[in-house]
From TrEMBL:
Residues 1-52 form the TRAM domain. Belongs to the class I-like SAM-binding methyltransferase superfamily. RNA M5U methyltransferase family. Keywords: Methyltransferase, S-adenosyl-L-methionine, Transferase. Pfam families: tRNA_U5-meth_tr. The active site is at C363 (nucleophile), C363. It comes from Thermus filiformis. The keyword Chloroplast does not apply. This is RNA methyltransferase. Transmembrane segments: none annotated. S-adenosyl-L-methionine binds at Q245, Y272, E293, D336. One of its GO terms (biological process) is rRNA base methylation. GO terms for molecular function: rRNA (uridine-C5-)-methyltransferase activity.
Length: 405
């Protein structure tokens, strides 16, 4: 089938029309004629084995990793991402709020401070296609920050008897940590020590787990387990084991603007707080801040960051955001949930305590729009929305927003 890609939809797929109806085109850019094999999945048509017949003049001309699903010159990515947020708001929340201009990533390349790869059995790092066992060997990843580019080169020369690697770097320290997932930790110890001698700052081993990386046992093998990173002027810890923002420069700018929007008050709550970097910002303007996070590693890093920075008025609670009701009422609640958005319980909690302001940071515009739509039915007004580009060369877009009742 041959079609013309008309636009990109918020999931990053190209959209084209055919005599059979709408067709989604992975990797197709607006204005491109493409050819591929139509496949019907979940009631929609998708093109597979896509061949671009007439490339867009805006197509990025240099190599990118397979995970980069928006291969456009940087300036052309930004209006598309802004459009994804506006479209989600209008179509899902049925709201027309003024959108602040998207804030570009301070770096279009070399911005990723965290990444995961499969290890190729013949050595080197590889990309595993979603829902497939097929491995594609990679010889570089220009999206990685410099210390991770070095780690990438080092790992390309060492065959390692593990299944996957997770990398975390720090721009502030100029260093990199490695997580080896799978294999035998005893057998990997010598390699881990050698990798530290070659320049990595630390190596941990993690047991593969069906529910995701770092859900099982984690054993430090050599060197350090944490680094310090600068997020908008706040020095906070990062590790391979638990969430920290992938693009520290872009996230730092978002946290600064979030703090300005949050202003001052008595009590603030952050749900889905990670190691509490945003809470550290909020602790400057609120008498008391409570940070709720489910990951043990993130909470223990947060506790140490809090002690090092002297944020006496910040309190961590390790637990599920659904338990928030036990902490009472707050002037401001900040949420930064995973892609699934807020759970029903968290929405019910917000509606019941009715904080004056809700600061909502989102990594998925569709679930954010769903939640914002629900909150607007409960009397909240969407006062501020700004898309942020945390992930150049991918369709992903972050949203900073403020609701007020
Ligand atoms: C998008 S991250 C945001 C972290 C933090 N705000 C930051 O910027 O570093 C989402 C966080 O929510 C946590 N999380 C996921 N489900 C949770 C739940 N049900 N209750 C509490 N935390 C949860 C994850 O462990 C992760 O740290």
């Amino acid at each position: 089938m041959e079609v013309l890609v008309e636009k990109l939809v918020p999931t990053g797929l190209g959209l084209a029309r055919s005599p059979e109806g709408a067709v989604f085109v992975p990797g197709g850019l607006p204005g491109e004629r493409v050819r591929g094999r139509p496949v019907r999945r979940k009631g929609a048509w998708f093109l597979e084995e896509v061949e671009v017949l007439s490339p867009s003049p805006l197509r990025y001309p240099h190599p990118l990793p397979p995970s980069a699903d928006l291969p456009l010159v940087y300036e052309a990515q930004l209006p598309l991402k802004e459009g994804f947020v506006r479209e989600s708001l209008e179509r899902i929340a049925r709201l027309e709020a003024p959108l602040e201009p998207i804030r570009p990533s301070p770096r279009a390349l070399a911005y990723r401070a965290a990444a995961q790869y499969a290890l190729h059995p013949l050595g080197g790092l590889a990309y595993r296609r979603p829902e497939s066992h097929e491995l594609q060997r990679l010889d570089q990843d220009p999206l990685l920050i410099e210390p991770l580019q070095e780690a990438f080169r080092l790992l390309s020369t060492w065959p390692l008897a593990a299944e996957e690697v997770a990398l975390r770097g720090s721009l502030h320290e100029g260093k990199a940590l490695l997580g080896l997932i799978g294999g035998d930790p005893k057998a990997l110890k010598r390699a881990a020590r050698a990798l530290v001698r070659e320049g990595l700052e630390g190596v941990v081993w993690a047991e593969p787990h069906p529910r995701g990386r770092f859900r099982g046992r984690v054993i430090p093998l050599a060197g350090r387990t944490e680094l310090l990173e600068d997020f908008g002027g706040v020095l906070a810890s990062v590790s391979v084991q638990s969430f920290a923002q992938v693009n520290p420069l872009a996230a730092g700018a978002l946290f600064q603007e979030a703090q300005a929007l949050a202003g001052e008050g008595e009590r603030a709550l952050e749900l889905y707080a990670g190691s509490g970097v945003l809470s550290l910002f909020l602790s400057r303007g609120f008498r008391e801040v409570v940070a709720v996070e489910i990951s043990k590693d993130a909470v223990s890093r947060g506790q140490r960051d809090k002690a090092r920075l002297g944020a006496e008025n910040l309190r961590f609670h390790r637990g599920d955001a659904r338990e928030a009701a036990r902490f009472g009422a707050f002037d401001l609640v900040a949420v930064d949930p995973p892609r699934a958005g807020l759970s029903r319980e968290v929405l019910e909690y917000l509606v019941s305590i009715r904080p004056g302001r809700i600061l909502y940071i989102a990594c998925d515009p569709a679930t954010w729009a769903r939640d914002v739509g629900r909150l607007s039915q409960e009397g909240y007004r969407l006062l501020f929305v700004r898309p942020y580009d945390f992930f150049p060369f991918t369709h992903h877009v972050e949203v900073l927003s403020l609701l007020e009742r």
